[in-house]
Design goal:
Elements lengths: L1 H13 L1 H32 L1 H6 L3 E4 L14 H8 L4 E15 L5 E9 L9 E5 L9 E5 L15 E4 L2 E10 L10 E5 H7 L9 E6 L5 H10 L3 E4 H14 L2 H31 L1 H9 L4 H37 L9 H28 L2 H6 L1
Parallel strand pairs: 3-8, 5-7
Antiparallel strand pairs: 1-9, 1-10, 2-3, 2-6, 2-9, 4-7, 5-8, 6-7
Length: 378
Amino acid sequence: MRGILRIAYKLLVNDGSKFAALLVGITFAVFLMVQMTSLFAGVLNRASATVINVGASMWVMDPGVQTVANSIPMPDYVLDAVRSAEGVKYAVPLYSGNGLVKLADGTYQAVNILGLDDSSLFGRPALVQGSIQDIYAENGFIVVQDSEFHKLENPRIGTEFEINNHRGVMVGIAQVATSGLFGVPTLYTTYSRALQYVPQTNFSISYILVEPKSAAEVAGIKRSVAALGYVALTKDEFMAQISTFYKYQTGLGINLFLMTVMSFVVGLSISGQTFYTFVLENLEKFGALKAIGAKGHELVRMILFQALFTAMTGYGIGVGICSLMIALAKLKVPDYAAMITFTNLALAFFMVLVIAGISSYVGVRKVLRIEPFDIFRG
Protein backbone atom coordinates (compact mmCIF):
# COMPACT_ATOMS: atom_id res chain seq x y z
CA MET A 1 0.00 0.00 0.00
CA ARG A 2 2.81 2.43 0.81
CA GLY A 3 4.38 1.70 -2.59
CA ILE A 4 1.12 2.51 -4.39
CA LEU A 5 0.75 5.80 -2.49
CA ARG A 6 4.40 6.69 -3.17
CA ILE A 7 3.79 6.17 -6.88
CA ALA A 8 0.62 8.31 -6.66
CA TYR A 9 2.56 11.07 -4.94
CA LYS A 10 5.32 11.06 -7.56
CA LEU A 11 2.80 11.08 -10.42
CA LEU A 12 1.15 14.10 -8.82
CA VAL A 13 4.13 16.30 -7.96
CA ASN A 14 6.28 15.41 -10.97
CA ASP A 15 3.80 17.23 -13.21
CA GLY A 16 4.57 20.58 -11.62
CA SER A 17 2.35 22.74 -13.81
CA LYS A 18 -0.77 20.63 -13.24
CA PHE A 19 -0.06 20.29 -9.51
CA ALA A 20 0.42 24.06 -9.22
CA ALA A 21 -2.84 24.67 -11.11
CA LEU A 22 -4.70 22.34 -8.75
CA LEU A 23 -3.22 24.08 -5.70
CA VAL A 24 -4.04 27.54 -7.03
CA GLY A 25 -7.68 26.62 -7.64
CA ILE A 26 -8.24 25.11 -4.22
CA THR A 27 -6.17 27.76 -2.42
CA PHE A 28 -8.13 30.56 -4.06
CA ALA A 29 -11.45 28.90 -3.18
CA VAL A 30 -10.42 28.36 0.44
CA PHE A 31 -9.15 31.92 0.72
CA LEU A 32 -12.45 33.36 -0.49
CA MET A 33 -14.58 31.01 1.63
CA VAL A 34 -12.68 31.69 4.84
CA GLN A 35 -12.52 35.41 4.06
CA MET A 36 -16.28 35.72 3.53
CA THR A 37 -17.29 33.61 6.53
CA SER A 38 -14.71 35.36 8.74
CA LEU A 39 -16.05 38.75 7.76
CA PHE A 40 -19.58 37.61 8.63
CA ALA A 41 -18.41 36.17 11.96
CA GLY A 42 -16.68 39.44 12.79
CA VAL A 43 -19.78 41.46 11.95
CA LEU A 44 -21.97 39.23 14.12
CA ASN A 45 -19.49 39.45 16.98
CA ARG A 46 -19.42 43.24 16.83
CA ALA A 47 -23.21 43.38 16.57
CA SER A 48 -23.30 41.76 20.03
CA ALA A 49 -20.53 43.98 21.44
CA THR A 50 -22.66 45.53 24.19
CA VAL A 51 -23.92 42.12 25.34
CA ILE A 52 -20.37 40.74 25.43
CA ASN A 53 -18.83 43.77 27.14
CA VAL A 54 -21.51 44.20 29.82
CA GLY A 55 -21.44 40.49 30.58
CA ALA A 56 -24.82 40.11 32.32
CA SER A 57 -26.16 36.56 32.69
CA MET A 58 -29.71 37.53 31.70
CA TRP A 59 -31.29 40.45 29.88
CA VAL A 60 -34.90 41.56 30.31
CA MET A 61 -36.33 43.54 27.40
CA ASP A 62 -39.41 44.45 25.43
CA PRO A 63 -40.60 41.59 23.15
CA GLY A 64 -40.10 43.83 20.12
CA VAL A 65 -36.33 44.14 20.59
CA GLN A 66 -34.34 42.40 17.84
CA THR A 67 -30.84 43.79 18.38
CA VAL A 68 -29.12 45.33 21.38
CA ALA A 69 -28.63 48.57 19.46
CA ASN A 70 -32.39 49.14 19.10
CA SER A 71 -33.79 49.05 22.61
CA ILE A 72 -37.42 49.75 23.51
CA PRO A 73 -37.75 51.60 26.86
CA MET A 74 -39.62 49.89 29.70
CA PRO A 75 -41.50 51.44 32.65
CA ASP A 76 -39.92 51.49 36.12
CA TYR A 77 -42.39 49.02 37.62
CA VAL A 78 -40.86 46.23 35.51
CA LEU A 79 -37.57 46.63 37.39
CA ASP A 80 -39.32 46.32 40.76
CA ALA A 81 -41.27 43.27 39.57
CA VAL A 82 -38.14 41.54 38.26
CA ARG A 83 -36.26 42.22 41.49
CA SER A 84 -39.04 40.58 43.46
CA ALA A 85 -39.24 37.52 41.19
CA GLU A 86 -38.25 34.21 42.75
CA GLY A 87 -34.73 33.09 41.87
CA VAL A 88 -33.37 36.58 41.14
CA LYS A 89 -30.16 37.34 43.00
CA TYR A 90 -30.17 40.95 41.88
CA ALA A 91 -31.42 43.07 38.98
CA VAL A 92 -30.22 46.48 37.85
CA PRO A 93 -31.26 48.89 35.10
CA LEU A 94 -29.13 49.70 32.06
CA TYR A 95 -29.54 52.72 29.84
CA SER A 96 -28.46 52.31 26.21
CA GLY A 97 -28.88 55.18 23.81
CA ASN A 98 -27.27 57.57 21.36
CA GLY A 99 -25.99 61.08 21.85
CA LEU A 100 -24.26 63.82 19.89
CA VAL A 101 -21.00 65.10 21.34
CA LYS A 102 -19.60 68.53 20.51
CA LEU A 103 -15.80 68.38 20.60
CA ALA A 104 -13.33 71.12 21.50
CA ASP A 105 -12.83 72.15 17.86
CA GLY A 106 -16.57 72.60 17.36
CA THR A 107 -17.20 69.41 15.37
CA TYR A 108 -19.92 66.93 16.31
CA GLN A 109 -19.58 63.19 16.75
CA ALA A 110 -22.30 60.61 17.37
CA VAL A 111 -21.67 58.34 20.38
CA ASN A 112 -23.22 55.35 22.06
CA ILE A 113 -23.98 56.03 25.73
CA LEU A 114 -24.32 53.29 28.34
CA GLY A 115 -25.72 54.30 31.73
CA LEU A 116 -24.72 51.94 34.54
CA ASP A 117 -26.68 51.38 37.73
CA ASP A 118 -25.61 54.12 40.17
CA SER A 119 -25.22 51.92 43.22
CA SER A 120 -23.49 48.85 41.74
CA LEU A 121 -22.02 50.03 38.39
CA PHE A 122 -22.73 46.50 37.18
CA GLY A 123 -21.34 45.98 33.66
CA ARG A 124 -18.55 48.53 34.08
CA PRO A 125 -15.54 48.17 31.76
CA ALA A 126 -11.95 47.57 32.81
CA LEU A 127 -10.07 50.86 33.12
CA VAL A 128 -6.57 51.41 31.76
CA GLN A 129 -6.47 54.97 33.07
CA GLY A 130 -8.36 56.66 35.88
CA SER A 131 -10.48 55.31 38.73
CA ILE A 132 -13.98 53.88 38.41
CA GLN A 133 -15.06 55.94 41.41
CA ASP A 134 -14.50 59.11 39.38
CA ILE A 135 -17.58 58.26 37.34
CA TYR A 136 -19.55 59.72 40.26
CA ALA A 137 -17.78 63.05 39.85
CA GLU A 138 -19.68 65.95 38.36
CA ASN A 139 -20.17 65.46 34.60
CA GLY A 140 -18.04 62.29 34.68
CA PHE A 141 -17.82 59.99 31.66
CA ILE A 142 -15.59 57.03 30.78
CA VAL A 143 -14.53 56.58 27.16
CA VAL A 144 -13.74 53.23 25.54
CA GLN A 145 -10.33 53.05 23.85
CA ASP A 146 -11.18 50.99 20.79
CA SER A 147 -10.98 51.44 17.02
CA GLU A 148 -13.39 54.41 17.24
CA PHE A 149 -11.43 56.22 19.96
CA HIS A 150 -9.73 58.61 17.52
CA LYS A 151 -13.10 59.97 16.39
CA LEU A 152 -13.26 61.80 19.73
CA GLU A 153 -9.84 63.33 18.98
CA ASN A 154 -8.02 60.85 21.23
CA PRO A 155 -9.27 62.33 24.52
CA ARG A 156 -7.30 62.16 27.76
CA ILE A 157 -8.41 62.27 31.37
CA GLY A 158 -9.74 65.77 31.98
CA THR A 159 -10.79 66.36 28.36
CA GLU A 160 -14.03 68.34 28.26
CA PHE A 161 -16.83 68.09 25.72
CA GLU A 162 -20.45 69.09 25.34
CA ILE A 163 -23.43 66.80 24.95
CA ASN A 164 -26.95 68.18 24.52
CA ASN A 165 -25.87 71.49 26.04
CA HIS A 166 -24.42 69.71 29.09
CA ARG A 167 -20.76 69.77 30.05
CA GLY A 168 -19.00 66.42 30.13
CA VAL A 169 -15.56 65.44 31.42
CA MET A 170 -13.53 62.34 30.59
CA VAL A 171 -12.61 60.79 33.94
CA GLY A 172 -11.39 57.41 32.72
CA ILE A 173 -10.25 55.44 29.68
CA ALA A 174 -11.42 51.84 29.38
CA GLN A 175 -10.82 48.76 27.28
CA VAL A 176 -13.51 46.27 26.29
CA ALA A 177 -13.51 42.82 24.73
CA THR A 178 -15.21 43.82 21.48
CA SER A 179 -15.61 47.05 19.53
CA GLY A 180 -19.02 48.10 18.27
CA LEU A 181 -20.33 47.48 14.76
CA PHE A 182 -21.64 50.86 13.69
CA GLY A 183 -18.47 52.95 13.84
CA VAL A 184 -19.34 55.19 16.79
CA PRO A 185 -17.37 55.66 20.03
CA THR A 186 -18.79 54.41 23.33
CA LEU A 187 -19.14 56.38 26.56
CA TYR A 188 -20.03 55.01 29.99
CA THR A 189 -21.63 57.05 32.75
CA THR A 190 -24.09 56.53 35.59
CA TYR A 191 -27.71 55.66 34.89
CA SER A 192 -29.03 58.87 36.47
CA ARG A 193 -26.62 61.06 34.49
CA ALA A 194 -27.53 59.34 31.24
CA LEU A 195 -31.19 60.14 31.87
CA GLN A 196 -30.25 63.73 32.66
CA TYR A 197 -28.09 64.28 29.57
CA VAL A 198 -30.02 62.42 26.88
CA PRO A 199 -33.60 63.31 25.87
CA GLN A 200 -36.04 60.68 27.10
CA THR A 201 -39.40 59.21 26.14
CA ASN A 202 -42.08 58.33 28.69
CA PHE A 203 -40.06 55.32 29.86
CA SER A 204 -36.31 55.23 30.44
CA ILE A 205 -35.08 51.69 31.22
CA SER A 206 -33.49 50.18 28.11
CA TYR A 207 -32.66 46.79 29.65
CA ILE A 208 -32.75 45.10 33.02
CA LEU A 209 -29.64 43.09 33.83
CA VAL A 210 -30.43 40.05 35.95
CA GLU A 211 -28.19 37.71 37.89
CA PRO A 212 -30.04 34.49 38.84
CA LYS A 213 -29.26 32.72 42.10
CA SER A 214 -28.41 29.60 40.11
CA ALA A 215 -28.72 28.21 36.59
CA ALA A 216 -31.76 26.22 37.72
CA GLU A 217 -33.64 29.47 38.38
CA VAL A 218 -33.38 30.74 34.79
CA ALA A 219 -36.55 29.02 33.57
CA GLY A 220 -38.58 30.37 36.49
CA ILE A 221 -37.31 33.90 35.93
CA LYS A 222 -38.28 33.68 32.27
CA ARG A 223 -41.81 32.66 33.23
CA SER A 224 -42.11 35.50 35.76
CA VAL A 225 -40.93 38.06 33.22
CA ALA A 226 -43.22 36.63 30.53
CA ALA A 227 -46.16 37.09 32.90
CA LEU A 228 -45.33 40.81 32.92
CA GLY A 229 -45.47 40.92 29.12
CA TYR A 230 -41.71 41.12 28.63
CA VAL A 231 -38.90 38.75 27.61
CA ALA A 232 -35.91 37.46 29.56
CA LEU A 233 -33.02 36.01 27.58
CA THR A 234 -29.71 34.58 28.69
CA LYS A 235 -26.55 36.16 27.31
CA ASP A 236 -26.12 33.39 24.72
CA GLU A 237 -29.78 33.52 23.70
CA PHE A 238 -29.65 37.28 23.20
CA MET A 239 -26.49 36.98 21.08
CA ALA A 240 -28.14 34.23 19.02
CA GLN A 241 -31.19 36.45 18.49
CA ILE A 242 -28.98 39.29 17.27
CA SER A 243 -27.15 36.93 14.91
CA THR A 244 -30.44 35.62 13.53
CA PHE A 245 -31.60 39.17 12.83
CA TYR A 246 -28.48 40.02 10.82
CA LYS A 247 -28.48 36.66 9.02
CA TYR A 248 -32.09 36.57 7.88
CA GLN A 249 -33.59 40.06 8.18
CA THR A 250 -30.84 42.08 6.54
CA GLY A 251 -29.12 41.75 3.17
CA LEU A 252 -25.81 41.05 4.86
CA GLY A 253 -26.38 37.35 5.48
CA ILE A 254 -27.63 36.40 2.03
CA ASN A 255 -24.98 38.46 0.22
CA LEU A 256 -22.08 36.85 2.10
CA PHE A 257 -23.69 33.42 1.70
CA LEU A 258 -23.85 33.89 -2.07
CA MET A 259 -20.21 34.99 -2.13
CA THR A 260 -19.23 31.86 -0.21
CA VAL A 261 -21.18 29.64 -2.62
CA MET A 262 -19.54 31.36 -5.58
CA SER A 263 -16.12 30.72 -4.02
CA PHE A 264 -17.00 27.05 -3.67
CA VAL A 265 -18.17 26.82 -7.29
CA VAL A 266 -14.99 28.53 -8.54
CA GLY A 267 -12.77 26.14 -6.61
CA LEU A 268 -14.78 23.12 -7.70
CA SER A 269 -14.74 24.08 -11.38
CA ILE A 270 -11.02 24.86 -11.48
CA SER A 271 -9.84 21.86 -9.47
CA GLY A 272 -12.31 19.44 -11.06
CA GLN A 273 -11.33 20.37 -14.62
CA THR A 274 -7.61 20.40 -13.83
CA PHE A 275 -7.73 17.07 -12.01
CA TYR A 276 -9.66 15.48 -14.86
CA THR A 277 -7.02 16.73 -17.31
CA PHE A 278 -4.31 15.36 -15.03
CA VAL A 279 -5.94 11.91 -15.02
CA LEU A 280 -6.32 11.92 -18.81
CA GLU A 281 -2.66 12.72 -19.28
CA ASN A 282 -1.65 9.88 -16.97
CA LEU A 283 -4.03 7.21 -18.27
CA GLU A 284 -1.16 5.26 -19.81
CA LYS A 285 0.60 5.05 -16.46
CA PHE A 286 -2.54 3.90 -14.69
CA GLY A 287 -3.11 1.35 -17.47
CA ALA A 288 0.44 0.07 -17.09
CA LEU A 289 -0.05 -0.33 -13.33
CA LYS A 290 -3.24 -2.26 -13.99
CA ALA A 291 -1.43 -4.47 -16.51
CA ILE A 292 1.28 -5.48 -14.02
CA GLY A 293 -1.29 -6.47 -11.42
CA ALA A 294 -2.60 -3.38 -9.63
CA LYS A 295 -6.16 -3.93 -8.48
CA GLY A 296 -9.03 -1.54 -9.16
CA HIS A 297 -9.34 -0.58 -5.50
CA GLU A 298 -5.61 0.26 -5.41
CA LEU A 299 -6.01 2.61 -8.34
CA VAL A 300 -8.99 4.18 -6.58
CA ARG A 301 -6.84 4.73 -3.49
CA MET A 302 -4.22 6.41 -5.65
CA ILE A 303 -6.77 8.85 -7.08
CA LEU A 304 -8.28 9.54 -3.65
CA PHE A 305 -4.83 10.11 -2.17
CA GLN A 306 -3.88 12.55 -4.92
CA ALA A 307 -7.13 14.50 -4.59
CA LEU A 308 -6.98 14.55 -0.78
CA PHE A 309 -3.31 15.53 -0.67
CA THR A 310 -3.91 18.41 -3.07
CA ALA A 311 -7.03 19.53 -1.20
CA MET A 312 -5.34 19.52 2.22
CA THR A 313 -2.28 21.34 0.91
CA GLY A 314 -4.46 23.97 -0.76
CA TYR A 315 -6.57 24.23 2.41
CA GLY A 316 -3.52 24.92 4.57
CA ILE A 317 -2.11 27.49 2.18
CA GLY A 318 -5.49 29.19 1.74
CA VAL A 319 -6.11 29.47 5.49
CA GLY A 320 -2.58 30.75 6.01
CA ILE A 321 -2.91 33.46 3.36
CA CYS A 322 -6.33 34.50 4.66
CA SER A 323 -5.04 34.72 8.26
CA LEU A 324 -2.11 36.83 7.12
CA MET A 325 -4.34 39.14 5.09
CA ILE A 326 -6.77 39.64 7.99
CA ALA A 327 -3.92 40.37 10.40
CA LEU A 328 -2.41 42.93 8.01
CA ALA A 329 -5.80 44.50 7.34
CA LYS A 330 -6.44 44.98 11.06
CA LEU A 331 -3.07 46.69 11.45
CA LYS A 332 -3.93 49.17 8.71
CA VAL A 333 -7.71 49.41 9.21
CA PRO A 334 -8.70 49.11 12.90
CA ASP A 335 -12.40 48.99 12.01
CA TYR A 336 -11.94 45.81 9.98
CA ALA A 337 -14.24 43.30 11.62
CA ALA A 338 -13.20 39.90 10.19
CA MET A 339 -12.31 37.15 12.65
CA ILE A 340 -11.45 33.51 11.98
CA THR A 341 -13.37 31.02 14.12
CA PHE A 342 -13.32 27.24 14.41
CA THR A 343 -16.74 27.19 12.72
CA ASN A 344 -15.35 29.04 9.70
CA LEU A 345 -12.40 26.67 9.46
CA ALA A 346 -14.64 23.62 9.82
CA LEU A 347 -17.02 24.87 7.13
CA ALA A 348 -14.16 25.55 4.71
CA PHE A 349 -12.64 22.14 5.53
CA PHE A 350 -15.92 20.38 4.77
CA MET A 351 -16.33 22.23 1.48
CA VAL A 352 -12.75 21.38 0.48
CA LEU A 353 -13.50 17.72 1.17
CA VAL A 354 -16.54 18.01 -1.10
CA ILE A 355 -14.35 19.53 -3.83
CA ALA A 356 -11.81 16.72 -3.39
CA GLY A 357 -14.54 14.08 -3.42
CA ILE A 358 -16.17 15.33 -6.62
CA SER A 359 -12.81 15.79 -8.35
CA SER A 360 -11.64 12.29 -7.41
CA TYR A 361 -14.98 10.78 -8.47
CA VAL A 362 -14.45 12.15 -11.98
CA GLY A 363 -10.94 10.68 -12.07
CA VAL A 364 -11.95 7.33 -10.57
CA ARG A 365 -14.61 6.74 -13.22
CA LYS A 366 -12.11 7.32 -15.99
CA VAL A 367 -9.36 5.16 -14.48
CA LEU A 368 -11.63 2.19 -13.76
CA ARG A 369 -12.77 2.11 -17.38
CA ILE A 370 -9.31 1.77 -18.87
CA GLU A 371 -8.16 -1.59 -20.16
CA PRO A 372 -4.45 -2.52 -20.33
CA PHE A 373 -4.97 -3.96 -23.79
CA ASP A 374 -6.06 -0.54 -25.11
CA ILE A 375 -3.03 1.15 -23.59
CA PHE A 376 -0.47 -1.28 -25.03
CA ARG A 377 -2.23 -1.45 -28.37
CA GLY A 378 -1.91 2.35 -28.66
